[in-house]
Design goal:
Helix content is 78%, strand content 0%. It is built from 13 helices and no strands. The longest helix has 27 residues.
């Protein structure tokens, strides 16, 4: 199916974009590098607007659009700080927690019951989180869980997953009141515009172009990010959101592998296994919704 190929492509390009962004972060301010990735992703996104029809827009579109923007900028900052401070293979799997938060919010706020399949998904999520730090087991049975909260990058990525559980629902509403490609192109262009004053406030040393190698990494990160977004939004137009996101979250497995290949990160087997368990949990929860 075409949407599966597009979702897997989005997963791969997202993992590549994140890996090259981490490369760039070794030699630059996190706000500036994240902003450059957005800037270099915009030409392809803006170009798509010339090939699609502008959908009719209503007040609901603008409402959810404006609510989402500050949350997206906050998630962008937290995400960038997370991959800068911690190994990719350790923190990226926590993005799979997004649907878990959606289920928990549904239970706490709306009283929606958790199905047996959803409960099994939550179990796999917990097991995967535990396995990511399995090497700490020799210090005590609860140490793998405690290790999650001792790692700054893990905490930040869990916060990102929490924010994404909100923005994904808002994004779905905005798409229903526009179209996937139109929303993707306009939304991330707006994110770049809103993020610019934040970056200028935080950027140290002025607006100098980074070194050639760092600039290359940010250009690649931006290019891969824009291709990911086009594939993501096109897949959304062809499949149910929950199913498409479940397939796209294979990016966490690609991210673990790239952590090993590009950064020689250690304990890859336990992290890959933990990420795989969390991905199984994601699929179970997505199918239960």
């Amino acid at each position: 199916m075409l949407w599966v190929s597009l979702a897997l492509s989005a997963a791969l390009f997202l993992a590549l974009s994140d890996a090259f962004l981490k490369k760039a972060l070794a030699d630059g301010n996190e706000y500036y590098m994240a902003w450059l990735r957005l800037v270099f992703s915009l030409p392809l996104l803006i170009m798509t607007l010339f090939f699609i029809e502008k959908p009719p827009l209503d007040a609901e579109f603008y409402r959810v659009f404006m609510i989402s923007l500050p949350l997206e900028v906050l998630a962008l900052v937290l995400f960038t700080k997370s991959i800068q401070s911690s190994p990719l293979s350790l923190v990226l799997p926590f993005l799979a927690l997004t649907p878990l938060f959606q289920v928990l919010f549904g239970y706490l706020i709306l009283g929606e019951a958790v199905s047996a399949r959803g409960a099994m998904g939550i179990f796999f999520m917990a097991a995967g989180s535990y396995t990511l730090n399995l090497s700490h087991l020799k210090k005590g049975i609860f140490e793998p869980f405690k290790a999650v909260f001792r790692e700054r990058g893990s905490i930040l990525m869990i916060m990102v997953a929490l924010i994404y559980s909100i923005t994904s629902a808002l994004g779905k509403a905005a798409i229903m009141h526009s179209s996937p490609l139109f929303f993707g192109a306009t939304y991330f262009t707006a994110v770049g515009a809103v993020f610019t004053p934040v970056m200028l406030l935080k950027q140290r040393g002025g607006m100098r172009l980074p070194a050639r190698a760092t600039l290359k990494y940010t250009v690649l990160a931006g290019l891969f990010y824009s291709v990911m977004l086009v594939a993501h939004m096109t897949a959304l137009s062809l499949a149910k959101v929950a199913y498409m996101i479940a397939v796209k979250r294979t990016s966490v497995l690609f991210g673990v592998l790239l952590g090993r290949i590009m950064f020689e990160e250690s304990r890859i087997k336990e992290r890959f296994f933990g990420a795989a368990l969390m991905l199984i949990g994601l699929v179970l929860i997505s199918g239960a919704r």
